[in-house]
Amino acid sequence: MREFLLFTVIVAAGTGGELFVARAMKNVGPTASFRPAAIVNVLLQGLRQPFMVAGVAMMAVAFFSLLGALAIYNVSFVVPVTALSYVAGAFGGAFFLREHVSGWRWMGVVLVAIGVTVVLLSKG
User: Fold this and answer.
1) Comparing 17-26, 29-38, 43-52, which segment has the lowest mean pLDDT?
2) Comparing C-alpha atoms, which of 82, 70, 112, 76 is closest to residue 10?
C-alpha cells in the first residue's frame, strides 16, 4: 500500500505540476524575442500566474517523493514505474489543456502503459 501511495503521489503531483505550469505559460503567451529583457519579462509574468505557483509546488512534492522512492526501491523499478506520468500527461493534455492528442500518441501511451505493467508484474 505504501508503494502504491508513493508512486501515485510522484505521478499525480509531477504531472499535475507540469500541466499547471503549461497552463500558466499558455496564459502568458510566447516571448516576442530571445533578448534577455524579453525572456525576463515572460518569466516575471509567469511567476504572477497562480497556476505557476501551484505547479512548482506540486513538482517539488513530486521531486521529494521521488527521492524517497529512490531511497527504498531500485532505480530499475522506480524509473519505469514513474513513466506512468507520460500516460497521465497525455490524458491531462487532452482533457485539462484541451490539446489534440493524435492516434499515434495514444498508441505510444498504450505502449508505455504496457511497459509499466510488465515492470510491475516482474517486481515479484
Assistant:
1) 29-38
2) 82
Q: Is the distance from CB of 103 to CB of 29 less than 8 angstroms? A: no
Question: How many CA atoms are closer than 13 Å to the CA of 6, on its beta-carbon side?
Answer: 15
Give pLDDT, residue 8.
96
Is pTM beyond 0.70? Reply is yes
* Segment 106-114 long-range contacts (CB within 8 Å, at least 24 positions apart): 112/83, 112/84, 112/86, 112/87, 113/84, 113/87
Collect all residues with Cβ–Cβ distance below 8 Å to 122 and sequence separation of at least 6: none
Q: Which helix (H) or strand (E) holds 124?
A: none
